[in-house]
Amino acid sequence: MSNAISPPAEAERFSWLERKDDDFPYYRGQPVGISSQGWLIVLVGVALGFSVLYLGVEFTGGALPPMLAALLFWAIPLVALALVAGRHWTALFRPLRGVDFLWMIGFAILNLVVTLVTGSLINALTDATANTAVTGAGQHGSSDLLQFFVMTGIQLIGEEVTSILPFLALLYWFSGKGRMGRKSAIVLATLIVAVLFAFEHGATYDWNLIQILLGVGVARIILFLPYFMTKNLAVSAGAHILNDWMFFGIGILATSTAAAQ
Q: What is the pTM of this model?
């Protein structure tokens, strides 16, 4: 007899977004199950990766290169996942198809539009704080600018890893231990991770709660969508990188235009 687990029932799928006969890894034992203790190990890895990125360079007095810190940001959580999932840690990723690159571009543009809309609402509600990474992008020289784009790309992969792993852990706890329906578990896990992601960026926006929740939190939800559709972290990471690079490009263009006037 086959031990394969049947895909979620149609009523438990977001059919407008998810592909038929496809599902998230781990939470239902495919391709391997991860226990509560295993997920705790993964989340410790996420916390360690986050700490290395945001505290490592300062803590070591600059001995830890920022590029290495950005790599460790996502490498440490993936090592933790490999410890509990073995070779199946690769279930986070799938081979990229041609259409996946179109989805990266499409969701990056969607998030750009949503961010502009929420940005207008934020400006109407509060005094917004500018993102210095965006406004300062145009201050880099050509060689420094290339390094800046490479490093931010590496760091944004980490943001996807450290968002999707907690999402999958919560999905396991809510739908399994909590006996919550799949749709409800996905929604609740998404909202919790979006709030956590927003607060991770709190210092960037001077802890303006409206800005980090409405701006960053909503952006995190939009950038979850390509992963929900493809179950491929590479696609959501690609969309995230393209989205932020577009904003950096806007910052560079604004700086160039101001300098020319």
A: 0.92
